[in-house]
């Protein structure tokens, strides 16, 4: 993939080149995310590991902020990639887009270096501006926050103006409206208040309304586009599903935010609102699951009936990751989310490793998968390959990463279960109970297995990078 710009067959399509630039940074940050996750996982087992060199708090912070940032990069990359296809015109202002890319990338690098070099210190007005804001997942300091807003405005302008200039497909209409909401929500997490309940109240507007509303709709649009491109699904069918998904996702996800308002000092009516609407959230995820498999089965069936052999997919690595998305989204967000979404259950599970189990499977299943799929679509275009086929490396990456993340999820679920039983139910959730529960064999063994499965995930990641770097050139050579 690193060489793909030089050897690309985009025929001067600058928007797609820009998309590839974003994909490259995304994959590097994904690697960094995993490495810092491994450090944090080892620190659960050996608390003194890298103490005062790279503390747990910093390793964890870089792990989850890198996660968000690589996903946003891959999302922007995907939009720049699909934009010329959907609108039928070249993206306006690609030069501005490139400028935005470099500003963002330099800013991200500085922010991460500051996290690593300045690990401890007093929380002051200056540290909010220069070091970080202390809001989990979106910890960028204020100067970077403002920079991000400017860069995102440039990006949004590019998308919006191209949309207005070109064709207005259903997919792009959803994309343009949804991106406005997605970008606008970021601002809810930017202002400072010293009231922790208020701070959390607004912070969830970003985190929850991203992952359980706007990001999910984004996934819907990507899947719709990819299904048309990869298996030749009918646009009318795909777009009809998309509109239904949008309705159901927003219908359940927006008020579903109440499931984070059970214990932070918000009024008690949120218990009922949060329970009801968040319990409905798995419904659209089931719909999305059915939709992908339905379209795939239908197009494959038509091809078989016409006597064609082999798969209908012209890009099996991308399709595999998108099918994985259908499963992962449903399992990680739908099932693991539903487990702890009712207040009667959440009172026991809140703040245990159960949450981390759900966090891993959902972010991976709902987002990492489809974004990796989009990278394979990018490569197919970059090398001008009509039919991109999975290689041994593609399959190893797919298997090891999925197995590793599932393994980590199961280990963390067991750790969380043990915490619920011992720390919460038996010992009454006190200070001491917290520590006693973490010394029990089930907990310690689960943390060990999480670390082992983390290594499996990382080996899968190495296969993934190796595949991304070679699959395009190999496919092109095989054809020539
Ligand atoms: C792809 C979509 C989703 C992603 C990426 C996601 C991710 C996460 C993450 C990372 C957390 C932990 C946040 C923290 O640090 O405090 C969390 C919390 C939670 N999620 Fe999800 N989630 C998704 C969908 C869902 C769905 C559909 C449900 C319910 C059906 C759900 C229910 C919950 C609940 C109840 C919590 C609060 C846990 C607690 O603090 O006790 N999530 N989610
Ligand atoms: C090498 C593999 C990985 C390892 C060893 C690892 C390890 C960790 C550790 C130790 C934490 C801190 C948990 C805590 O504070 O109790 C964490 C948090 C988190 N990780 Fe990972 N991780 C890995 C991969 C991933 C992947 C692939 C994703 C998603 C795509 C992910 C998403 C998250 C999230 C969302 C959190 C915050 C969870 C929460 O607070 O509820 N991690 N991870
Ligand atoms: Fe939520």
Q: How would you describe what is shown here?
A:
There is one protein chain. The chain is globular and about 65 Å long. The model has no long low-confidence stretch (mean pLDDT 95). It has 480 residues and is mostly helical. The chain starts with 13 loop residues before the first helix and ends with a helix. 78% of the residues lie in helices and 0% in strands. Helix 1 packs parallel to helix 3 and helix 7 packs parallel to helix 10. It is built from 16 helices and no strands. Bound molecules: protoporphyrin IX containing FE (HEM) (2 copies) and fe (ii) ion (FE2). Fe (ii) ion binds next to helix 7.
SSE layout:
Blueprint: H1 14-45, H2 56-87, H3 94-117, H4 125-130, H5 142-165, H6 170-186, H7 196-231, H8 235-256, H9 269-280, H10 282-305, H11 316-339, H12 343-349, H13 353-382, H14 392-426, H15 431-439, H16 441-479
Helix pairs in contact: 1-2, 1-3, 1-13, 1-16, 2-3, 2-5, 2-13, 3-5, 5-6, 6-7, 7-8, 7-10, 7-11, 7-13, 8-9, 8-10, 10-11, 11-13, 13-14, 14-15, 14-16
SS strand fraction = under 5%
N→C terminal distance: 19 Å
The helix/strand order is: HHHHHHHHHHHHHHHH
Shape: globular
User: Residue ranges: pLDDT <50 for 5 or more in a row?
Assistant: none
Task: Fill in the keyword field for this structure.
single chain; 480 residues; mainly alpha; 16 helices; 78% helix; globular; binds protoporphyrin IX containing FE; binds fe (ii) ion
């Amino acid at each position: 993939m690193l060489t793909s710009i030089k050897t690309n067959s985009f025929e001067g399509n600058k928007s797609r080149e820009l998309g590839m630039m974003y994909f490259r940074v995304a994959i590097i940050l994904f690697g960094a995310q995993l490495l810092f996750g491994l450090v944090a996982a080892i620190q659960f087992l050996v608390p003194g590991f890298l103490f005062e060199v790279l503390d747990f708090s910093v390793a964890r912070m870089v792990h989850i902020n890198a996660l968000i940032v690589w996903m946003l990069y891959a999302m922007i990359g995907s939009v720049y990639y699909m934009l010329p296809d959907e609108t039928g015109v070249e993206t306006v202002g690609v030069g501005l887009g490139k400028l935005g890319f470099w500003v963002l990338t330099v800013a991200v690098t500085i922010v991460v270096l500051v996290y690593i070099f300045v690990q401890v210190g007093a929380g002051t007005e200056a540290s909010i501006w220069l070091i970080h804001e202390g809001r989990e997942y979106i910890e960028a300091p204020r100067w970077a926050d403002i920079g991000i807003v400017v860069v995102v405005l440039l990006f949004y302008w590019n998308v919006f103006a191209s949309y207005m200039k070109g064709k207005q497909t259903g997919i792009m209409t959803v994309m343009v409206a949804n991106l406005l909401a997605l970008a606008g929500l970021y601002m809810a997490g930017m202002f400072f208040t010293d009231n922790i309940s208020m701070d959390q109240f607004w912070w969830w507007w970003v985190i929850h309304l991203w992952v359980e509303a706007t990001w999910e709709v984004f996934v819907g649009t990507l899947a719709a586009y990819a299904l048309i491109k990869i298996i030749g699904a009918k646009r009318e069918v795909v777009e009809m599903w998309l509109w239904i998904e949008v309705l159901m996702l927003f219908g359940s996800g927006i008020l579903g935010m109440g499931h984070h308002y059970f214990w932070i000092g918000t009024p008690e009516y949120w218990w009922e609102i949060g329970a009801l609407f968040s319990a409905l959230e798995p419904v659209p995820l089931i719909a999305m699951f059915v939709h992908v498999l339905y379209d795939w089965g239908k197009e494959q069936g038509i091809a078989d009936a016409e006597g064609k052999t082999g798969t209908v997919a012209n890009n099996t690595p991308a399709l595999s990751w998108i099918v994985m998305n259908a499963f992962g989204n449903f399992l990680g967000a739908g099932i693991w989310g539903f487990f702890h979404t009712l207040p009667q259950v959440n009172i026991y599970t809140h703040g245990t490793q159960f949450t981390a189990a759900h966090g891993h499977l959902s972010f991976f299943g709902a987002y990492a998968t489809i974004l990796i799929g989009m990278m394979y679509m990018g490569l197919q275009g970059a090398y001008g390959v009509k039919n991109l086929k999975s290689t041994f490396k593609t399959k190893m990456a797919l298997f090891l990463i999925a197995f590793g993340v599932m393994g980590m999820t199961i280990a963390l679920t067991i750790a969380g279960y043990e915490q619920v039983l011992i720390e919460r139910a038996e010992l009454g959730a006190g200070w001491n109970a917290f520590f006693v529960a973490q010394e029990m064999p089930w907990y310690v063994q689960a943390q060990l297995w999480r670390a082992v499965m983390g290594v499996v995930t990382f080996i899968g990641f190495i296969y993934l990078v190796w595949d991304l770097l070679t699959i395009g050139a190999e496919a092109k050579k095989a054809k020539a």
